[in-house]
Every structure is written in structure tokens, then in C-alpha cells.
Amino acid sequence: MTLTESKDFSHLFSEETKARKPSPLKTCIHLFNDPNIVFLGGGLPLSDYFPWDNIHSQSPLPPFKNGIGSKITGLKDDTLEYVVSRDEKVEKADIPFKKSLQYGATQGQPEILEFLREHNKLVHEFNYSDWDSILTTGNTNGWESTLRIFCNKGDVILAEAHSFSSSLASAEAQGVITFPVPIDSDGIIPEKLESILDNWTPGSPKPKLLYTIPTGQNPTGSSLSDERKEAIYKIACKHDFIIIEDEPYYFLQTGPYLKDLEQRKKYEDQQEQQNHEQFLKSLAKTFLSLDTEGRVIRMDSFSKVLAPGARLGWLTGSKKILQYYVSLHEMTVQGASGFSQSIINGLLQRWGQDGYIDWLKGLRSEYVIKRNNAIDYLHEFLPASGPFTINPPIAGMFFTVTIDATAHPDFKTKFNSNPKAVEQHIYETIVKNGVLLVPGCWFITEGETTPPQPADSKQIQNPNEIFFRGTYAAVAAEKLREGLKRFSECLKEEFGF
Amino acid sequence: MTLTESKDFSHLFSEETKARKPSPLKTCIHLFNDPNIVFLGGGLPLSDYFPWDNIHSQSPLPPFKNGIGSKITGLKDDTLEYVVSRDEKVEKADIPFKKSLQYGATQGQPEILEFLREHNKLVHEFNYSDWDSILTTGNTNGWESTLRIFCNKGDVILAEAHSFSSSLASAEAQGVITFPVPIDSDGIIPEKLESILDNWTPGSPKPKLLYTIPTGQNPTGSSLSDERKEAIYKIACKHDFIIIEDEPYYFLQTGPYLKDLEQRKKYEDQQEQQNHEQFLKSLAKTFLSLDTEGRVIRMDSFSKVLAPGARLGWLTGSKKILQYYVSLHEMTVQGASGFSQSIINGLLQRWGQDGYIDWLKGLRSEYVIKRNNAIDYLHEFLPASGPFTINPPIAGMFFTVTIDATAHPDFKTKFNSNPKAVEQHIYETIVKNGVLLVPGCWFITEGETTPPQPADSKQIQNPNEIFFRGTYAAVAAEKLREGLKRFSECLKEEFGF
């Protein structure tokens, strides 16, 4: 089947994007490699002056037989030694430092982009022809750029009613209004989203974007089902907004928490025995895979699967839109670090697509253990019935515990029937007792809207329900257990259990 | 002498800067390293999962006895081998990858910042107490952030009448008006600058910033004298604007071009024999060194002295201002690449301050040769008298040739007395003949101002004078000679010489 091209969404661009002129210097850059031209146009230092002749790395070797995170021995059966050179390609698809450490290639070096396009094809279905990927310096950069590409001051965007506070703050600092979309334990509720938009105050500017973290959402830990995604995509088409899927946790899809140990063992064995095709098929369908028009922009990142400080991620979407990101990035980040690109590309090219999938699969196993530990400990320390609800995630790094604030003995007296006061009191208490989880109110999406819009999520969620977000990513099992013990003891003490 | 603190310049901040709230997550981050707290707050992956155990580099060894850019042998007398490890500090001031590849430290890792502070103290005098440096991902990022920190849409900034087109375009895309400051062959003319500001239309918003490239200016190649800098700094205090000194070429101070070969040899020998103190003393005084109030922000970069693709630079200025850059960067770039930081820091710590000065001094020698070659070739190929003026720079990567457009035989006829038409015609002709230099009109600073301001530079500079910018940085001597021969032949042909 021949795919058609993506639609034009330039009517949603910001003033800034419309005003950005290409640099005149770019009009001659194609002559740089013309053998008939002596190019005296650009201030590029000679690569002979780059003081790194070659860089040699010791890394784990697929299929990572001792598991992700185990010490490598330096021996051939678990250790990959590779060299990236300044001047030559040691491997065919290497990026020598003379290229990656030079100016140019704001969109990313061709070799690593090609690897990522191939990876994309394994993970997503593409339903229009002119899709592409470009590098970012991570999803923080990808999101900031997205706001600049689409939003003017006063524009409205949609976001999950609880969302990643830095993403919300970034929008709010730019004068962009963040409008909360009602969520439940499975993420955005499509019917509520549709009702908000169907009843949007006439004449009031409609949202340009939906910002969503579909998998292992931060902070709630929820994951959107394929069905909900389909419904949300339809609403996006109907009400003409762009979907930004921010997916740093996508490959940490642990699957359901199974309390029964026998069931659990069986499920984990099945996971373990998946071949690559089965593994990829087990992953949630992406918004990108549903997109027939080019209105989805996906943000992927190496931060959670290789290392955050690599500052390397990629955007995937319609070329018609991505070219404007490249123009913006020429004036902002210029491009991702050449060290990051050469070193990560050097690793990925030697691992190959298969080795990288081995890595992602191995990483999932690690997070299955971590997630199970966290939820097991909570079940161990918290009463089975009462005001506390443990919410086991099926993906990501975060779990939450929701609490009925009205169950606190002092709710009506000391706390004046104010659930937020209970939340703040518990936060202070747990920190005093040596454990830190983050109160849910830190993640509330609450931009002002003028005129006020209907179906505000604050009226839909139970206002007396508070929650705390914890992570099992950052600490070893024993410490996690101790932390959750302290947390649970505090809750029981406070609520009289 | 005890230095006093910098002044408060928050009245010059943008709406966005004033609106930016610190992330609530940052209020608890100090508890991350508290041994009494089990920190389940942040989604940080375990560093055991970062797939690089150690990275080993081969780099040149100070004092670079065979010169910068010569091949290293791998032997002890010219080759530095160093290892940066994921888990340990191999050298005391190393940044292990478990730190640099983790989240955190938006301002930069402490080890490399400390190196840069020490370097700063060698290069500048500081006249107020609370200065500091923070990392950027290069000066493109530093400048973009500067615009976001200070400017609202409609604000005015000052820039050299010809300036780096990408910097101007970045401002213009944000709706910031770039106002041209008259320049001559020595850069900004302080008297003209003062007159513009003294006669600024009352009630019209005054410029918040002066953007300047003081050393080896792009595109003119000019360098500001210490005296002009002093005068400009006084005007900045009088008219309350911030000075942004963008100094990527600062260490490429080649000194004057000497046509006489005997004089040249003597001068170069003197340069060669300079010890580090003499070398540093020979450098131009910086705006930073003149600053008593904290109204200068300096942008330094490794792009021209180590490698552009490292995407690593630093800002130096008042802590009171820099802290707002850090808050902005938390939401934009998050931080420079950890690979770049660990690898460059690893090199610099082993070179030491002295080794780094050796490198910079060696690099200067390279650029002296390159600059001399370019100007020699131009003298060889262009007539000594006539409409062409060769402008030998004393620093940087760029030279210019100015041309009296009225001298073209077809000026009044074919070109309708329009110098820009001559410029475009010459550009097309040289490209057709196999050489590319960039026409001066690509660098014109010309924002609109409402109401129009007096002393517009366009009335001051000779409107019939056009110029071309060339670089001697990017090509080897032979190719440079061939390119400049082609360029000169075209000019002579066109102007009938």
C-alpha cells in the first residue's frame, strides 16, 4: 500500500515559528562539499585541532547473559570493547569525531538517525509517508522546543490533571495556559476530554496541543490502553489539536503486578522466553502508530534506558513539522553533543538492532523486580483494608498510594476539613521519619482559563483523595523496603491503624 | 581589598523570567544526599545500568612540542592516555560517569566549573565579589537563553551594525528589535553609541542589552581596543544596559599583520618566547575585567579552541543573574552532555592550567600562520591601489575585503547605482568561478524601530562600500591560496584591472 503524505498543520504554529527566517548562511551550505568550490564561507576549525585521536570504551556485550547492571569482567564473553576514531570509521556506520565534533547536522548525524529510524520501524506502524526523526538533547529540550514551535503567550494546551511538574512549569513560564484533563487510574478519560472540547466556550481559543505521558505516567504511574488512545486520537482529529506523546518510560512496560507468587513466576517465565518479535508485540500501541495525518509528535529519550546525562533523545513525526524544529534548534541547542552521538552510536551499531532489543528486554526484567518489590513491601506494611489504596503500575518508575484524607482522626478539627492540609502534614511527618515520597499536589495542572471552561477536572476527581508518588528506580531493594516501612508506619500511626 | 557585591539588575528581566517559578521538586532535592533519608522522590535510573564502564582517550600531551594539530605517535613524549571511569575517580578531580551521566547539576559538574573559575582568574580581573561561571551547551545556547532571560517581544537590543547573522535572527524570531550600532574598522564607535542613546526618542523603550563580539568580530574581523571598551562600559552604566560579550575567538589573538618579513619574524619570535604570564598579559582587556557592577555577561566556548561539536561553553557574570539562567536551563537544555563534561574535564585536569595555556598559545601560532597566509595571498593577487581594501584582522578566523562599488564600470548602468546589486552580482560570479566568500549584506543588523531612532548607522557608513567575508580557519594553505586567487581574478576582471 502506498502511503499518503501528512497534512499541513502550519495553522497551529506560533508567531515565532512563522517569523523565523532561515539563516542566509544556510543558503550556501550545500556548496561546502562541492569539490569545485573552495569554501571560505564558514568559521570551522580544522579537525586536526580536536585533541582526541580516538576514544576506547568498555561496555556490556549482548545478550547480557548476567543481566543488565551486572559488573562486566573485561573478558570476551560479556565485554564489548570498541573504538571510535577522530579520523576514520572503525566500523562502517561509525561517526568519526572529525564529523561529530564539527559544526553542522543540527538534526543529528546520519548514522545514528538511520539506526533510530530502523528502530522506529520495529516499534511503530507508520501510516503516512513523510515521517522522520531528528535528535534532541533530551525530552526537556524536545518539550521546550514544542512549546516554542506551537504556542504564543495566552494559548491553551491540555495535559493530564496531574502531570510532570517541570513540563507544566515550562509552559506556564512562557505564558501558556495548561488546562487539566480528567484522569482515573488508567490515565486520560476520553469521554471527559471530548465533553470538555465539545463544550468549550465559543470564541475562546481552543487548545493547540495535548501533552501526555501515555506509559508509566509521571506522577500517577498509569498507562493508557490502546482503546483509550484510539478514542483520544479521534478527538484530536475532531478538535484539531496536536498530540505530544512524551515516552521516556515506554520500554519499562513491566506488565501487571501479580500478588500470587505462582502466577507471577509463570508470567515472568513467559516474559523471559519472549523472542524479540513477541517482546515488541507485547508493547502498548503508540499514538504514532495510530496517526494517519501527521498530528502526533513523539518524544523518545535515552535518559531512562541508557543514561540521562547523555542528553540525547529524538523526535518522530511529520517532516513538514520537524523541519521547523531544526530551524529552531539551529538557534538554540545547535545540536546534540558530538561525544554523545559518536559514543552512543558506536555502541548501538555494534550491538545492532537485536542487541539493543536485548538490552531493553533485560532492562524490563530489572524493573519488573523493582516494581514487584515495592508493591510487595507496601502490601506487607499497610493494612489490607482502610483508607490506603496501593496502585501498582504496569510500566515506568513510579507507584502511588492514594489516601482518603477524611479518614484522618483530626480531619475536621486540626485540618479544618482541608485534604491539602492533611497531605502537607503527612509529607512533613514522613520526612521527619526518614523517608521522602512526593505529595500529589506538586503535580497539579492548574492554569487559569479566561473564560472559565466547563468540566474542570477538579470537580470530577474526589477532592478528599490525596496521594503520594514514590519511585523504585533509584534505590536498592533493602533500602526501598526500609523506606516503605517508614512510610507505612507513619501512615498507620497518623490514621490510627 | 574587599570587593563589594554586584548590583541588582532584575528590573531588566523579561516577563518570562519574572514568571518562572522554581520547580517544587527542587525544594526537596537537598535531602537526596541526607544519610537519614530514604529518598524515593526522583526517577533516577541506577548508574549500574549505564553501559559504559570506562572510556579511554588518546590525546596530545603538553607542551605539544610538535605544534597543535600534528599527529601524535602514541608514545610517551607526545601522547596523553587517560581513562575516565563510570564508578571511580581515576584522578582526584575526575567526574565519574555515574555522576555526569546522571540527572542533576544543571549549572555543570563542580570539577569542571572549578577548573574554569581558576582559568577565569588567570584571564580576567574581577571587581565585584559574587561572580561565578555556569556551563552552557555553547554560545548559541548562551545567547538564546540571554534573550529569554532579559527580553520581551518588542524590546530593543543593540548590536554591531554588521553582526553574526544567527544571533540577530534568533533575536528577531523572538520579536526582539535589533538596533545597529555604527562601527568602523576597529569595531563599535563609542561616540556614536553615546549619541544614539543620548538622543533616544523619549518614551520609546531603551535598549536592554548590547550584544557584541569584541575580538575578531564576526563578520568584520575587527577587535575593540581597551580604550573603546572602557568608553562603552561607561555608556552602559549611564544608560543602564547589560553588555553581552560573545568571545569564541578570544584566544585567537594573532596580533598585527606585518608585511615586512623581517619585522614579522622578529614579532613571531617574541610571541613564541612569551611565558604564560606574558602571553596572558598580551591579551585584550575584557569587558568582564572592567565590570564593577555585574552588568557584563561573558560567553566563552570550547567550540573554537577544542571542538565545536563538544557543545560546551560557559557564562561568567554576577551570581544574581546567573541563577536565573540555571532555572531556565532546568526547563530547556537541563545541562551539558555528561560525556562532554567528563571527557573534556578529564583532559583539562591532566593538562592542568599550564597545559591548557600551552594549548591556547600553540593554537594562536597556528592562526598567525593562517592569517598571514591569507593576507599575503590577497596582497599577491589584488592590485595595491584601486577600489579594493584588504582588512587584516588582529584576531579571530575572518578577514574582509571591502570594495568601492561605484568603481564597477557598470555601476550606473546595469546596476542602477545600487551597491547591493553589485554585491549580489560579485557573489554569483565568484561562486561560478569556484570560490565562496560571504557577502557583507548577509550580516546587516536592521530591526525596525518604532518610533525611528536617530543616528541610524546606515547613514554613517559609506553606503557604496560593500564587503566580502572570508575565513582562513577551515582550509589548508594551498587551497586557501587557490581560493583567494580565484576570488581576486574575479574582482580584477569585474572592475577592469
UniProtKB/TrEMBL annotation, chains A, B:
Name of a matching Pfam family: Aminotran_1_2
SUPFAM superfamilies in UniProt: PLP-dependent transferases (SSF53383)
The keyword RNA-binding appears for this protein: no
Catalytic activity annotation: an aromatic L-alpha-amino acid + 2-oxoglutarate = an aromatic oxo-acid + L-glutamate
Chief localization: cytoplasm
The protein's name: aromatic-amino-acid transaminase
Residues annotated as domain Aminotransferase class I/classII large: 98-444
Family affiliation: Belongs to the class-I pyridoxal-phosphate-dependent aminotransferase family.
BP GO terms, sorted: aromatic amino acid family catabolic process; L-phenylalanine biosynthetic process; lysine biosynthetic process via aminoadipic acid; tyrosine biosynthetic process
Annotated GO CC locations: cytoplasm
Source taxonomy: Eukaryota, Fungi, Dikarya, Ascomycota, Saccharomycotina
Subcellular localization, as worded in the UniProt entry: Cytoplasm
Highest rank taxon of the organism: Eukaryota
